[in-house]
Each structure stands twice: as structure tokens, then as C-alpha cells.
Amino acid sequence: MLRENFDEVEDKISQACIRSGRERSEVTLIAVSKTKPVDMLREIYDCGQRDFGENKPQEMRDKTALLPSDIRWHMIGHLQRNKVKYVVDKACLIHSVDSVRLARAISDEAVKKQCQVPILIEVNVAGEESKFGVSVENTYSLINEISAYPNIHIEGLMTIAPFVEEPEDNRPVFRKLRQLGVDIKAKNINNVNMCIYSMGMTNDYEVAIEEGATMVRVGTGIFGARNYT
Questions:
Q1: Helix, strand, coil: what percent of the chain each, to 5?
Q2: Residue 155 vs residues 178, 204, 209: alpha-carbon distances, Å
Q3: 124-163: pLDDT as tens digits
Q4: Helix, coil or strand: residue 207
Q5: Which of the residues bear the PTM N6-(pyridoxal phosphate)lysine (predicted)?
Q6: Residue 120 phi/psi, 5° resolution?
Q7: Are 161 and 126 within 8 A, CB to CB?
Q8: CATH 3.20.20.10 is held by the domain 2-222
């Protein structure tokens, strides 16, 4: 069943790339494995998947010890400053940086552990009160302030679009994030590469790809509904 789910997601990504005139290699699928047991991750790993996304730092830390070392772990959930130490030397990319204080904590820990940490800025494009992320209006000033911090590298932007019944409803959200990245890239800020757009989840990743997503985060579509118990 997991392989069938995985193959279906892969096919939909390929079709979305074709529709938007893009190469399949331009889009990275992140299998969102939060709350899922290691055996399920191994099954998807055996399908050839190497990028996995986790929400909780301790869960990522525990799984890295049990799974193959060539997995690329993505920290996609809200990150508290006191949990930074669990992910700095394990995550290939932290998607959810939304404040100066968090960026400083990541930078300090990266210096301490003598590693380089690529990060994305999480933008609350839709302005939802229930969501984390910096506002569109404050994104540039945040990036400008933290771009000089040592051992972190700003690689792009991330957003969590609203949950909607009709995926098309989120097209303006994805388009706005992409345009924001284009505008920031044009400012040529040192240590800022606007090359990654992490947007789109199980419900709307095809639309996100059509609007320029370079990473899509798919959990339920691959693993089934999450277990919160």
C-alpha cells in the first residue's frame, strides 16, 4: 500500500512538472514522516526516497540513529530555541526559521558544533493567526538582519498554505511566495540564495509545483493519516 501511495505521488509530481514545463529534477519530494514508525520509513526508503521531513526535534534525533545515514532529514515544524541543539548537525535543511532570535540560536549552535546550516525563512503568506511564520511585509527586514550571522545560509522561503477544499484556492498564496523570493533575490544580499521554495502539501502540491515549488512536503498522501496518540 505504501509503495502504491508513493508511486501515485511521484506520478502526480511528474504530471505537474509536465504541465508547467519543468523538469522532474527541479522538484524535491519530502516524505513527511512525523509520528510514523521507523518500519514505515524503511519501506518508503526502499522505494528510493531519501528526503524525509520531521516536525519534532527529538523525533528526528531518535530516527537518525535507527535509519540509514544517506537519508536527508528536513526540519519542517516550528522549532523552539531550546530544541535547536537536537537538529543543527542532523538536518540538511531547517524550513521553519521565522525570527531573529531563532536564527541567532541556530547560528550559535552551528558555530559551537562547527557545522554549516542551510535554512529557509517561513513566511505566513495567508496571514493566518494560527500559523507561525514572518509576515510578507517583514520578510526582507528579517533576512537582511540575519544574513550576516555565521554558519547559517539562507537558501529560500517556505510557507504553509491554508487547508482548503479546493487546491486552486491556494494558487495565489504560492504565487505570492514565489514573487517575494524573486523580489528578494533581486536585492543581491550576501549569503542569501533564493533558490528553494518549500510549498505545497498532500492537498495542494500539484498547484504548488505549477507555481514554482522546488520542494513539496507530502505526508498523508504517502503514509496515510497521522497518528496523534
A1: 45, 20, 35
A2: 13, 23, 18
A3: 999 999 899 999 999 999 999 999 999 999 999 999 999 9
A4: helix
A5: 34
A6: -115, 150
A7: yes
A8: yes
| Terminal Cα distance for the chain, rounded | 22
Mean pLDDT of 75-96: 96
Among 51, 86, 53, 42, CA closest to 71: 51
Residues in the chain: 229
Task: Write out the three cell numbers for 183.
Answer: 523580489
CA separation for the pair 40, 26 (Å, rounded): 26
CA 84-90-95 angle, 5° bins:
65
> In whole numbers, what is the pLDDT of the chain averaged over residues?
96
Q: How confident is the model at residue 225 (pLDDT cuts 50, 70, 90)?
A: confident
Q: Where are the domains of the chain?
A: 2-222
